[in-house]
Amino acid sequence: MRFPRLTSMLRVGRRLQVSMARRYFEDITEGERLHCQDVAMTREEIIGFAKRFDPQPFHTDENVARESFFGGLIASSLHTLAACTRSVVGAQGDTAILSGVGMDEVRMFNPVRPGDVLSVEARWVDLKRSESKPGMGFAGIRCKVSNQKGEPVIEYGYRYLLACRDASQPCGPLGNRIEHAGGDLLKDQPMTPQDF
Protein backbone atom coordinates (compact mmCIF):
# COMPACT_ATOMS: atom_id res chain seq x y z
CA MET A 1 0.00 0.00 0.00
CA ARG A 2 1.36 3.43 -0.96
CA PHE A 3 0.69 6.75 0.79
CA PRO A 4 2.06 9.41 -1.62
CA ARG A 5 0.38 12.37 0.12
CA LEU A 6 1.68 11.27 3.53
CA THR A 7 5.12 10.72 2.03
CA SER A 8 5.13 14.24 0.61
CA MET A 9 3.89 15.78 3.87
CA LEU A 10 6.50 13.90 5.90
CA ARG A 11 9.25 14.98 3.50
CA VAL A 12 8.34 18.65 3.94
CA GLY A 13 7.77 18.18 7.69
CA ARG A 14 11.14 16.48 8.10
CA ARG A 15 12.95 19.34 6.36
CA LEU A 16 11.20 21.91 8.56
CA GLN A 17 11.63 19.97 11.80
CA VAL A 18 15.25 19.03 11.17
CA SER A 19 16.18 22.62 10.36
CA MET A 20 14.48 23.93 13.53
CA ALA A 21 15.01 21.13 16.03
CA ARG A 22 17.77 20.74 18.57
CA ARG A 23 16.67 17.40 20.05
CA TYR A 24 16.49 14.32 17.88
CA PHE A 25 15.49 10.71 18.43
CA GLU A 26 18.97 9.77 19.64
CA ASP A 27 18.93 12.57 22.24
CA ILE A 28 15.93 11.09 24.06
CA THR A 29 16.34 8.38 26.69
CA GLU A 30 13.89 5.72 27.82
CA GLY A 31 11.99 6.93 30.89
CA GLU A 32 13.09 10.55 30.47
CA ARG A 33 10.61 12.89 32.12
CA LEU A 34 8.97 15.82 30.34
CA HIS A 35 8.44 18.90 32.50
CA CYS A 36 4.78 19.75 31.90
CA GLN A 37 2.99 22.86 33.12
CA ASP A 38 0.01 22.37 35.42
CA VAL A 39 -3.41 22.73 33.82
CA ALA A 40 -6.08 24.86 35.53
CA MET A 41 -9.65 23.96 34.56
CA THR A 42 -12.13 26.83 34.81
CA ARG A 43 -15.92 26.79 34.80
CA GLU A 44 -16.03 28.98 31.68
CA GLU A 45 -13.62 26.79 29.74
CA ILE A 46 -15.42 23.60 30.76
CA ILE A 47 -18.79 24.91 29.59
CA GLY A 48 -17.36 26.56 26.46
CA PHE A 49 -15.53 23.42 25.30
CA ALA A 50 -18.53 21.21 26.02
CA LYS A 51 -20.97 23.47 24.15
CA ARG A 52 -18.78 23.20 21.06
CA PHE A 53 -17.60 19.58 21.19
CA ASP A 54 -19.37 17.44 23.83
CA PRO A 55 -22.74 19.02 24.76
CA GLN A 56 -23.77 16.62 27.49
CA PRO A 57 -25.90 18.50 30.06
CA PHE A 58 -23.57 17.61 32.96
CA HIS A 59 -20.82 19.49 31.06
CA THR A 60 -22.89 22.52 30.02
CA ASP A 61 -25.65 23.18 32.58
CA GLU A 62 -24.83 23.57 36.29
CA ASN A 63 -28.44 22.99 37.41
CA VAL A 64 -28.79 19.76 35.44
CA ALA A 65 -25.28 18.69 36.49
CA ARG A 66 -26.18 19.12 40.18
CA GLU A 67 -28.95 16.54 39.75
CA SER A 68 -26.76 14.16 37.73
CA PHE A 69 -24.76 11.14 38.77
CA PHE A 70 -21.77 13.49 39.25
CA GLY A 71 -23.51 15.93 41.60
CA GLY A 72 -22.10 18.95 39.80
CA LEU A 73 -20.52 20.31 36.65
CA ILE A 74 -17.65 18.23 35.24
CA ALA A 75 -15.27 18.64 32.30
CA SER A 76 -15.63 16.52 29.20
CA SER A 77 -12.92 13.86 29.12
CA LEU A 78 -12.12 15.16 25.62
CA HIS A 79 -11.49 18.61 27.13
CA THR A 80 -9.27 17.12 29.82
CA LEU A 81 -7.30 15.18 27.22
CA ALA A 82 -6.97 18.22 24.92
CA ALA A 83 -5.85 20.54 27.75
CA CYS A 84 -3.28 18.01 28.99
CA THR A 85 -2.08 17.42 25.42
CA ARG A 86 -1.33 21.15 25.17
CA SER A 87 0.83 20.87 28.28
CA VAL A 88 2.70 17.83 26.93
CA VAL A 89 3.30 19.45 23.54
CA GLY A 90 4.72 22.51 25.31
CA ALA A 91 7.07 20.27 27.28
CA GLN A 92 8.37 18.61 24.10
CA GLY A 93 10.09 21.87 23.24
CA ASP A 94 12.19 21.68 20.10
CA THR A 95 12.08 17.90 19.69
CA ALA A 96 12.15 16.81 16.02
CA ILE A 97 8.65 15.31 15.88
CA LEU A 98 7.63 14.54 12.31
CA SER A 99 4.15 13.24 13.05
CA GLY A 100 1.88 11.69 15.61
CA VAL A 101 1.12 8.08 14.67
CA GLY A 102 -1.30 6.98 17.36
CA MET A 103 -2.63 7.06 20.88
CA ASP A 104 -2.61 4.38 23.52
CA GLU A 105 -5.59 3.42 25.62
CA VAL A 106 -7.17 6.30 27.53
CA ARG A 107 -8.36 5.41 31.04
CA MET A 108 -10.38 7.78 33.21
CA PHE A 109 -10.60 7.57 36.98
CA ASN A 110 -12.09 10.71 38.58
CA PRO A 111 -14.08 13.57 37.05
CA VAL A 112 -12.51 16.99 36.57
CA ARG A 113 -14.42 19.86 38.15
CA PRO A 114 -14.20 23.65 37.85
CA GLY A 115 -11.20 24.91 39.83
CA ASP A 116 -9.24 21.68 39.57
CA VAL A 117 -5.54 22.03 38.81
CA LEU A 118 -4.14 19.04 36.94
CA SER A 119 -0.56 17.80 37.14
CA VAL A 120 0.72 15.88 34.13
CA GLU A 121 3.48 13.32 34.66
CA ALA A 122 4.82 12.41 31.22
CA ARG A 123 7.76 10.19 30.25
CA TRP A 124 9.32 9.04 26.97
CA VAL A 125 8.88 5.27 26.49
CA ASP A 126 9.22 2.51 23.89
CA LEU A 127 11.98 4.10 21.81
CA LYS A 128 12.62 2.19 18.59
CA ARG A 129 14.58 3.06 15.46
CA SER A 130 12.57 2.53 12.27
CA GLU A 131 13.76 -0.52 10.36
CA SER A 132 12.51 0.71 6.98
CA LYS A 133 13.31 4.44 7.40
CA PRO A 134 16.74 4.69 9.08
CA GLY A 135 16.49 8.47 9.48
CA MET A 136 13.49 8.08 11.76
CA GLY A 137 12.56 6.57 15.08
CA PHE A 138 9.38 5.83 16.98
CA ALA A 139 8.81 7.03 20.53
CA GLY A 140 5.92 7.00 22.95
CA ILE A 141 4.97 9.35 25.72
CA ARG A 142 3.12 7.83 28.67
CA CYS A 143 1.01 10.29 30.71
CA LYS A 144 -0.53 10.10 34.18
CA VAL A 145 -2.67 13.03 35.25
CA SER A 146 -3.77 13.78 38.80
CA ASN A 147 -5.69 16.63 40.42
CA GLN A 148 -4.60 18.95 43.25
CA LYS A 149 -5.73 16.35 45.81
CA GLY A 150 -3.41 13.75 44.29
CA GLU A 151 -6.34 11.75 42.92
CA PRO A 152 -5.76 10.05 39.56
CA VAL A 153 -7.77 11.64 36.76
CA ILE A 154 -6.69 10.13 33.44
CA GLU A 155 -3.90 7.98 31.94
CA TYR A 156 -3.05 7.75 28.25
CA GLY A 157 -0.20 7.68 25.79
CA TYR A 158 0.93 9.01 22.43
CA ARG A 159 3.05 7.49 19.66
CA TYR A 160 5.30 9.73 17.57
CA LEU A 161 7.58 9.52 14.56
CA LEU A 162 10.80 11.47 15.24
CA ALA A 163 13.69 12.55 13.03
CA CYS A 164 17.14 11.20 13.74
CA ARG A 165 20.09 13.57 13.55
CA ASP A 166 21.94 11.52 10.93
CA ALA A 167 20.77 8.27 9.39
CA SER A 168 24.34 6.99 9.02
CA GLN A 169 25.32 7.44 12.68
CA PRO A 170 24.63 5.19 15.66
CA CYS A 171 21.23 5.95 17.08
CA GLY A 172 19.22 5.16 20.15
CA PRO A 173 20.00 3.71 23.55
CA LEU A 174 21.63 0.57 22.12
CA GLY A 175 23.76 2.51 19.61
CA ASN A 176 22.50 0.43 16.69
CA ARG A 177 24.06 1.45 13.37
CA ILE A 178 21.87 1.40 10.30
CA GLU A 179 23.52 2.35 7.01
CA HIS A 180 21.82 4.73 4.61
CA ALA A 181 22.50 4.56 0.89
CA GLY A 182 22.11 8.33 0.49
CA GLY A 183 19.53 10.64 -1.01
CA ASP A 184 16.23 11.79 0.38
CA LEU A 185 15.03 9.30 3.00
CA LEU A 186 11.42 9.56 1.90
CA LYS A 187 11.85 9.85 -1.85
CA ASP A 188 10.28 6.85 -3.59
CA GLN A 189 9.93 5.13 -0.21
CA PRO A 190 6.29 5.60 0.82
CA MET A 191 5.28 4.91 4.40
CA THR A 192 3.47 1.63 4.91
CA PRO A 193 1.37 0.40 7.85
CA GLN A 194 4.38 -1.73 8.89
CA ASP A 195 6.33 1.49 9.52
CA PHE A 196 3.95 2.24 12.36
Largest sheet: 7 strands, antiparallel
Low-pLDDT residue spans: 170-196
The portion of residues assigned to helices is 25-40%
* Helix/strand structural class: alpha+beta
CATH class: Alpha Beta
Percentage of residues in strands: 25-35%
Rg, Cα atoms, Å: 20 Å
- Amino- and carboxy-terminal Cα gap: 13 Å
* C-alpha geometry: elongated
Q: In total, how many beta strands?
A: 7
> What would the CATH topology be?
Thiol Ester Dehydrase, Chain A
Comma- or semicolon-separated keywords:
196 residues, alpha+beta, Thiol Ester Dehydrase, Chain A, 7-stranded antiparallel sheet, disordered C terminus
Briefly summarize what is shown.
The protein has 196 residues and is α+β, with helices and mostly antiparallel strands. The protein has helices spanning 4-20, 43-53, 57-60, 62-66, 77-92; strands at residues 33-35, 39-40, 97-103, 107-108, 117-129, 136-146, 152-163. It starts with a helix and ends in a 33-residue tail after the last strand.
Description:
- The protein has one domain: Thiol Ester Dehydrase, Chain A, CATH 3.10.129.
- 27% of the residues lie in helices and 26% in strands.
- The chain has helices spanning 4-20, 43-53, 57-60, 62-66, 77-92; strands spanning 33-35, 39-40, 97-103, 107-108, 117-129, 136-146, 152-163.
- Strands 1, 2, 3, 4, 5, 6 and 7 form a seven-stranded antiparallel sheet that branches.
- β5 and β6 (136-146) form a beta hairpin.
- It is elongated and about 60 Å long.
